[in-house]
Amino acid sequence: MKKIIGPNNKVNYGVYDEPVEFNYKDFHLLNFFGKEIRGLRKHLALHMFNYIGINAGDYFIGLAAVKLGYMHLVFAYVYDYKQGMLFEMDKKGPGSGRLIFPVDPDEYSINYNTAKNRMVLVKSHTRNTLALQASLNGRLEISITARYGLGEYEPLRVLNPSEPYRWTFTEKCSPIIPETLEISLDGKKLDPGPCPTLLYDWSGGYLRRETNWYWAAFSSPIPGDEEKVVGANFAALTNEAFFSENAFWIGKERTRVTRCIYDFDLSDLYQPWHIWDEEGTVDLHFVPQADRGERVNAFLIKSNFNQLFGAFSGKLSPRNGESVEFEGIRGLTEFHRAIW
């Protein structure tokens, strides 16, 4: 099992298609001038988040746990493509609070427990397991189990420099087919449709103090061909220094993509987006329908983001396979700026 930190503070950058020893404590974090940062300042610089997206019939459900050292965040939402946003929850607090977030991308149990909220997110590559149990604000109940792991799927796992003295590890995968999925809101079960799918994102490390990204992701059966599923994760402005974190999946087969170009109107995010790459493996158009956003201007953090719900149409062309064309696959894009 390869360690992410080697001798002499060497970060073993690369693509990890095997389990990893996440020995982050062996890393010596350095400041702008190469002097070591220790103690509380180093602890506060470690950031992690885990996001699960659920494409279920007429609904898109998102849930995430975020640990920023000096604060924690747990959020969830239910978006109905016919009725709009049905549920939103955003719980922030100082330090770790009631959030237990182990620093290991391969084997973990994330736990969040308060008087009105409970979430347990378990992932194990050795057991090929992904499971989520959540009860939020006395309104939203989610239960998911899925066979997920390096023996079942081909997730994209890359370790990149964030800047000369910092690094980020990320794991993305889409689409994941759940074995069981139950969602209820205000005591009413939501119909997940004939073929619900999941998208997964775990990222952690010593990210840039100022981090920006464009993001696009989807996970879905192809309309008119429900037996074929596709998924994608594309990002720009972050973590491209050595190894791209862009990929798409047709079924369980992964195609890595070098760089993606985002053509959209920053002054009007509701205008259509065009996402493509120079090699011709990705050519997508995204039409936004709704968004959720936030503006935070606080002492330690600033955040400006819009996450847009909508539909993708276009073509994905694996290098050694047949191209897949589709229309109206539901998914997300995001424009995000953060100082954290």
Explained architecture:
The chain is an all-beta fold. It has one domain (2-339). It has one helix spanning 39-45, and strands at residues 2-3, 14-15, 20-21, 47-56, 59-67, 71-80, 84-94, 99-100, 107-113, 117-124, 129-136, 140-147, 156-163, 166-176, 180-185, 188-189, 197-205, 210-222, 225-236, 246-250, 253-257, 261-263, 273-276, 282-297, 302-316, 324-339. The protein has a 9-stranded antiparallel beta sheet with strand order 21-20-19-18-26-25-24-23-22, with no helix packed on it. Strands 2-13-14-17-4-5-6-7 form an 8-stranded antiparallel beta sheet, with no helix packed on it. The protein has a 7-stranded antiparallel beta sheet with strand order 8-9-10-11-12-15-16, with no helix packed on it. Strand 11 (129-136) and strand 12 form a beta hairpin.
